[in-house]
Write a structure and sequence with these properties.
11 strands; 4-stranded antiparallel beta sheet; globular
Length: about 240
């Protein structure tokens, strides 16, 4: 399993957001994550990449134990993850090549020749082999998102976390990005994608999980099946912090 969570309680500070979370995602699986704003999606994703500590329950992500991981080891966990943002978060003052080179330097690469080869390889993988010299503002929204996906692939991650990757794209470009993500998944990467785009989900059908009523349920053909024991809803609003990964 790339993600293996059992009986986990997910908190934002002292506030319980999700209870008794059980989730398994294996190699090459593409899984949608849905749910209303404040339902726990962001908290779940933040837990997976080590931004929120796991204090109750068990969870491993890419063979890292989230219950016992030390803060000093979290950067090593994140090197096994690729993160795709809705709003790109590319550095506007440098070229695509330099954006990707910055990530490689930050994650410990030293050999300049190997770095150049890896950058060329990931850009070719996302169909941008000839665009490395361009700056982000010279690219379309779809091309910028392809750069973000290339950036996520640099360290050959086992898992890609995609947070609304088509949220700022037109329908045609969104479909192109979905095809690219599905192709990446078929090559062995596990992908967990948070989305509100039910039209795309209808065209690109795949396993779906949902954050709802302080728990996580599996959605199968429109029928929601609890993966965990539900907790009673309260009148208290969710304390989950929103925002991107």
């Amino acid at each position: 399993m790339i993600i293996d969570i059992s009986a986990a309680q997910i908190f934002q500070k002292q506030n319980l957001i999700l209870q008794d979370v059980n989730l398994k995602i294996g190699k090459s699986e593409f899984v949608y994550l849905i749910g209303k704003t404040g339902s726990g999606k962001s908290s779940l994703l933040k837990t997976l990449y080590g931004d929120l500590p796991l204090t109750e329950g068990e969870a491993t992500v890419c063979d890292f134990d989230l219950k016992t991981i030390k803060r000093s080891k979290i950067p090593f966990l994140r090197r096994k993850l690729g993160i795709v943002f809705q709003d790109f978060q590319l550095l506007s003052d440098r070229s695509v090549n330099d954006n990707l080179n910055f990530v490689l330097q930050a994650t410990g690469w030293k050999d300049k020749t190997k770095m150049q080869e890896r950058i060329k390889e990931v850009l070719e993988n996302v169909g941008l082999g000839a665009k490395g010299y361009k700056f982000p503002h010279e690219l379309s929204g779809g091309e910028q998102q392809r750069v973000v996906i290339a950036r996520a692939l640099l360290n050959e991650p086992d898992l890609i976390l995609a947070d609304e990757p088509t949220g700022n794209l037109d329908p045609e470009t969104s479909e192109e990005i979905m095809k690219l993500l599905f192709d990446i998944s078929k090559k062995g990467k596990a992908i967990l994608m948070a989305t509100h785009d039910f039209h795309l989900m209808g065209k690109f059908k795949s396993r779906t999980i949902k954050c709802e009523n302080a728990t996580v349920v599996e959605v199968n053909g429109g029928v929601e099946t609890p993966m965990v024991a539900s907790v009673p809803s309260t009148d208290e609003p969710s304390q989950e912090e929103g925002g991107n990964l």
